[in-house]
Amino acid sequence: MEKIGTFDFVTESYLLDFRGRLPLPMIGNYLLHCAGEHARQKGFGFNDMSERSCAWVLSRIAIEMTQYPTMSEPITIRTWVEDVGRLFTNRCFALLDKEGNNIGYARSIWAAIDLETRKPSDLTGIGKLEEYVTNQPCPIDKPGKILPAETGTEGEPYLVRYSDLDVNGHFNSIKYIEHILNLFDIDTFREKEISRFEISYVAEGRYGMQLSLHKKETAPDRYITSICDTEGKAICRAAITWKQNSY
Amino acid sequence: MEKIGTFDFVTESYLLDFRGRLPLPMIGNYLLHCAGEHARQKGFGFNDMSERSCAWVLSRIAIEMTQYPTMSEPITIRTWVEDVGRLFTNRCFALLDKEGNNIGYARSIWAAIDLETRKPSDLTGIGKLEEYVTNQPCPIDKPGKILPAETGTEGEPYLVRYSDLDVNGHFNSIKYIEHILNLFDIDTFREKEISRFEISYVAEGRYGMQLSLHKKETAPDRYITSICDTEGKAICRAAITWKQNSY
Fold first, then answer.
1. Every domain of chain A and the residues it spans
2. Least enclosed by CB within 10 Å: which of A73, A99, A110, A158?
3. Where is A28: in which H helix or E strand?
């Protein structure tokens, strides 16, 4: 039984950033697509969960890239379940270029919520999930706790709009990444590349929310960011590590 | 010789809006992708133009949809060149659902600029282009002149950021559409659907530009919008017609 899912993509010019590279939010879209498809193929997808009146909730994701795909480049993404706990399951990803060389890894942490009570569901009850656990290595750090960026920083206002919403009517988890990257100026993107991006989703963003985006440098090329609601409570936190551009 | 290009897409959940429908900006991405691919296949694509030190510039596009694709729906887009003038060429599109029923049409007007002088190139010199002209019908109005929405309206500020830029470093022509749609509130999207969207690109938007977005109702369910630069000059204008939601 093949436990690892394999998915192929080809970059399209309209998806690329001004440097002609696939931007991190689009990589995030690909990863979520693979997660959803792999789960569906194995019997614990969106519809299977709905039947149990549950839904998957992305809690954290960390992405490390050594190379970013450029124009019309085929990419292969492999994904697998690393472990299943009572409340959380870890799903890993490996990204490969057309020669099969690794260009990145990602780790994601998921919970399931009961759609009626909105409380966490016990994942050990979803038998099929455990069948697919595999110990394929994923040599990057797990996403962890991110310090608050909002203390002592001026926030930048942002109002949640139509194009920010996902198919569930919540702030699209990938759009958070887009808005966080927009906190960095163009020269940073010219000179540097993101080597690690890590995000932790705390609460749901909704239409019309007046948010505030914060950014703080913690060390050279290392930043923490947060998106806060009107009361100043973080709805998500992210940590970004830049490296010199190798292109 | 097949003059009409045919391209197939399947919608992905992460591309859908909160109503579970493919949003207009993504339809725009598909159309531009088809235009680029069709031109490339026929010998007047991006690279062919670069060799003549020219580049295609989208001047106007009008999109009319009778039905919006939903989750995991196959869509076919057919595209062809309707005519070639000295300065402009008209490219049309038909959008079909999986049964082959028409769900929309689009018309686009393109110019080519000389990359050194930035002046318009003579399109009649690009011989290959004329070979592919076909009189396939496209039963929607051509995109035309759009009245200024900025006179007598308060603008909403918008600063051009990293995620707005396309692979040429200009404001992505599809991102304009996204920002224009964000001028409408969520109830409009709940109750109505866009039956026609038309946009005219006047000048290039660039990183760091402080723009101002204007919207004006001209008749019930009919709006004009504009995006203006710091001097108040419109860099693009759009007209939107809504209809009651038929879903």
1. 1-143, 145-247
2. A99
3. helix A24-42
Contact B33 A12 (CB under 8 A): yes
Write the residue in A17, A165, A182 that is nearest to B17 by C-beta.
A165
Kindly write down the DSSP assignment for every residue of A174-227, as one continuous string.
Answer: HHHHHHHHTTS-HHHHHHEEEEEEEEEE-S--BTT-EEEEEEEEEETTEEEEEE
| Separate counts of helices (H) and strands (E) for chain B | 5, 10
**Contacts A–B by Cβ distance under 8 A:** 86
Of A15, A71, A163, the CB nearest to B182: A163
Contact B67, B19 (CB under 8 A): no
* CB-CB neighbors (< 8 A) of B161 in chain A: 182
Q: Is B14 on the interface with A (CB under 8 A)?
A: yes
Q: Which residues pair with A200 in a beta bridge?
A: A60, A237
Mutual angle of helices B173-181 and B24-42, in 10-degree steps: 160
pTM to 2 decimals? 0.92
**What distance, in Å, lies between the first and last C-alpha atoms of chain A?**
40
CATH number of B1-144: 3.10.129.10
Tens-digit pLDDT string for chain A (247 aa): 799 999 999 888 888 999 999 999 999 999 999 999 999 999 998 888 889 899 999 999 999 999 999 988 999 999 999 999 999 999 999 999 999 999 999 999 999 999 899 899 999 877 678 899 999 999 999 999 999 999 999 999 999 999 999 988 899 999 999 999 999 999 999 999 999 999 999 999 999 999 999 999 999 999 999 999 999 999 999 999 999 986 5
Question: CA A19 to CA A69: how far, in whole Å?
Answer: 11
Chain B residues whose beta carbon lies within 8 Å of the beta carbon of residue A18: 162, 165-169, 207
ipTM above 0.95, yes or no: no
User: A165 contacts in B (CB within 8 Å)?
Assistant: 17-18, 186
Q: Answer yes or no: do A207 and B18 touch at CB < 8 A.
A: yes
How many Cβ atoms from other residues are within 10 Å of residue A139's Cβ?
9
Same fold? B1-144, B145-247: yes
- Could A14 and B161 be called an inter-chain contact, meaning their C-beta atoms sit closer than 8 Å? no
Query: In sequence order, what are the residues at sequence separation of 6 or more whose Cβ sits closer than 8 angstroms to the Cβ of residue B239?
Result: B146, B196, B197, B198, B222, B223, B224, B225
Alpha carbon distance A203, A201 (integer Å): 6
CATH superfamily name and code, B145-247: Hotdog Thioesterase (3.10.129.10)
Determine, for residues B162 and A14 on separate chains, whether the beta-carbon distance falls below 8 Å: no
Question: Are the beta carbons of A14 and B189 separated by less than 8 Å?
Answer: no
**Structure tokens given for B40:** 């490339």
